[in-house]
Amino acid sequence: PVIQSGGGIAGGGSVTTDTEGPGEFSIFGSQFAVEESDTPLFIGSLSYLDVTASMTVESTSITAYGPLEGAEATTRQMTGISTVNGEGAYPFMVTLVDGGPIGTGSDSFQLAVGNDGETEVTDPSYLVQSTVQSGNLQLITFDFGNLEVSGSPVSATPAG
To answer: How far apart are CA 157 and CA 68, in angstroms?
Structure first.
C-alpha cells in the first residue's frame, strides 16, 4: 500500500501502579492513511513491566489507534492483543495523554488488560492509571505527500 500521511504517539517512562509499585513502559502507536483505501493502517508496539508483580505485557498486534472522542486534543487510544509474561492472547487498551514538554509531569498513561482469549477489554483483569513519573509522551505527525529531495542524487550507500 502507498501511505499518504498519518500521526502517532511515541514515548516511554516510569509510572506508579495501582498497588503503588513501579511500572515501566515504552510505546509507539500510529494510524496511516492509505492511497485508494478508506481503511487506515494501524502500526504500533507496547511494552510494559509491572516491577513489583514481575508481570510483562507485550503487544502482538494493534487493532486500532487514534484520538479519543470527547477527550483532550492530545489524548490517544490504542487497542490490540498482547501476551502477559510471554503467554496467551490478552486484549489491551492503552490511553495516553501528551500533556506537554518533558519534565512538566502532565503526561498520563492508562493500561487496561482483559482476559485471555477475549477480543476486547470488557472487564479488565489488570489496570494501571498514572501520570508519567519520568519520561515523555510525544505526538508525532507524518506527511509523506510533501516530501522533496533537492541537490545531489540520493545514494543508498554511505560512500555516495
So the answer is: 42
Residue 134: CB atoms within 10 Å: 12
Q: Is the pLDDT of residue 13 over 50?
A: yes
Would you say residue 82 has pLDDT above 60?
yes
Write down the pTM of the prediction. Answer: 0.84
Smallest CA-to-CA distance from 90 within 46, 59, 63 is with: 59
**What pLDDT score was predicted for residue 137?**
95
Any residues with CB less than 8 A from the CB of 19 and at least 6 apart, and which? 52, 53
Cβ neighbors of 101 (< 8 A, separation 6 or more) are 136
Q: In the sheet where 108-113 sits, what is the strand order?
A: 126-131, 108-113, 87-97, 75-84, 55-67, 41-50, 22-34, 3-16, 134-143
Nearest-angstrom CA–CA distance, 129 and 151: 49
Question: Are 25 and 17 in contact, with CB atoms under 8 Å apart?
Answer: no
User: Which residues, listed in sequence order, are joined to residue 82 by a DSSP beta bridge?
Assistant: 59, 90
Adjacent-strand bridge partners of 108: 97, 131
Largest interatomic CA distance in the chain: 57
Query: In which residue are the cell numbers 489491551 written?
Result: 92
